[in-house]
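User: My collaborator sent over this chain with a note saying "see what the structure looks like." That's all I know about it. Can you take a look?
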Amino acid sequence: MKNVAIFASGEGTNAENLFNYFMNDKRVKIKLVVTNSDKAGVIEKAERHKKNVQIISKSALYEYTAKIIEFLEAEKIDLIILAGFLLKMPEQFIKAFPDKIVNIHPALLPKYGGAGMYGMNVHKAVIENKELESGVTVHFVNEEYDKGEIILQAKCTVDFNETPESLSAKVRKLEFEYFPKAIEKII
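Assistant: Without extra context I'll predict from the sequence alone. Here is the result:
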C-alpha cells in the first residue's frame, strides 16, 4: 500500500475526487492533507473525509523544509500529490522525494506552464492564442515549474466561442476523470 500526502491550496475539489476514488482501494491510503492556507476549502473536505490536515505557511515550507521532510518520512509517505498547490516545491523536497511528487496542470504541457500559469490564467492564455485544443497534464515534479516527466495527458477541443469559464469546466471534467488514472498508472 502507498501512503499518500495531498498538498492543496484552494477548494480541494481534486483532492476530494481522489479521496472518493481511492476510498476502498487497497493500493492507496491518503494519509494526510497539507495546505498553505488556513482558509482553504480543502480543509473542510479533508476533515469530512477524516483526513489529518497540516497547515504549513509559505515561509515555513521554505524555512523548515528539512523538518517537514522528516515529518513526511515519519508518516511513511510514499507519494506526494499536488492538487492545486500553488507554491513551488523547494529543491530539497524534490531531492528527498525523487519521482514521488506528482502535479496536475490545466493545460497541455509544455505550453502554458511556468510561474503564474494556473487556473483562469492558463485558460485565458489558451483562448487568446487561438489554440484548437487544451486539456490536462499530470507530471512528475522537478526543479523547474511544469517541466517534469509527463505521466498522462488528456485533451479537449477549444471551441470558437470558448470562454475561460467554459474551458475551465471542460478541463475540470478531464481532471476528475484522468487524475486518479494517472495515479493508478504510477503506483
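A starting point for your reply to your collaborator: The chain has a mean pLDDT of 96.
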